[in-house]
Predict the structure of Dihydroorotase.
Amino acid sequence: MTLIRGAVPYGEGDPVDIVVEDGQIAEIATATGNVRDRAGDVIDAHGLIALPGLVDLHTHLREPGREDTETIETGSAAAALGGYTAVFAMANTDPVADNPVVVEHVWRRGREVGLVDVHPIGAVTVGLKGERLAELGAMARSAANVRIFSDDGMCVADPLIMRRALEYSRGLDVLIAQHAEDPRLTVGAQAHEGEAAARLGLAGWPAAAEESIVARDCLLAGHFGAQLHVCHVSTAGTADVLRWAKARGTQVSAEVTPHHLLLDDDRLATYDPVNKVNPPLRTSSDTKALRAALAEGVIDCVATDHAPHAPQDKDCEWSAARPGMLGLQTALSIVIQTMVRPGLLDWRGVARVMSERPAEIAGLPDQGRPIAAGEPANLVLVDPARTWVVNGAELASLAGNTPYEGMELPGVVHTTLLRGRVTAQDGRTRP
Ligand SMILES: NC(=O)N[C@@H](CC(=O)O)C(=O)O
Ligand SMILES: [Zn+2]
Ligand SMILES: [Zn+2]
């Protein structure tokens, strides 16, 4: 048994005692102190907010193939320390997760590590090449029980392939997640096509390359009766397209990354490739529009797009650097900074966009559940009063490419529990 004493669920109302037994919430006692200490752990949670464990629909764990930058073990540690109890691992590994063997490896390794539920995402097309559909059914039926398919890193650009993928997904009851980037509009692109890139002489990645694919895919999903998920929405225009599509009943969901909520292309001036990411950092009016769209529900959730890279692939000249940023350990703090502090979301809203909606979108029955008796004890305890300073070298990831280096951020993850077991506490994992 574990007793969580004095936490405030969703930051609302009076502190409660949460009794955890056999992986579940056994009891919630409203008058704290009434539950007697029994055998087991007691977590002093006075001053802490309890939220359902966070769920990340978009993580790059780099195993197999780039275990020098992240492994399922180190990525799971970063996730648990960041308050996550489930993550979805993207398919752009080497070999690509486009078959049952690779997705089953990721699934099994995640279980062995045991810090967070690791759900592999399968590739939509063989080798992420965009030419032939991968064996979606075989991956869905494998032990890994793949629920989400994505060619992330690459766009499923061919409209006929995308149509077929959506049609199959409907039959298999799985979700296609699109990295929306028209490749013909982003040949050689290095940064958001706008004033900052023009001044610095960086080839532009226009907003239209994202928005045109999102509009197309919303139409395909609508016409063929399928469900679509849009990865890392980065522009105000994409939010407008989503608002329109949702208003006409399209089954579309969307995510925004913490970095697109906080950072903009003012950052390019240093030419520091830590700021290089795909889709690129946009303008400050985009970040404003994305925050509003997330608050409004037009964008459903926050996903990290945690993308570790080795120093030799990142600490080099801008054009040679790989795009991507770490995100798992900083996501909650960035959401507090960009959404909670300005009053755009309350803690209930944080639970919605970082846990409940992602769990619903992915169809996870045991994550993103209410904090109530009889529910699985997947929880995160957050200290809203404390701040911390980001130090890339101290993060659990093998890579250190955080764009938040040296920044003081609000909100500290105190404890993460996965099915009642403490996976992270006071900045350390508990395997
Ligand atoms: N986001 C990125 O900039 N990079 C991702 C790929 C992706 O999410 O498109 C990666 O795998 O490194
Ligand atoms: Zn992507
Ligand atoms: Zn990604």
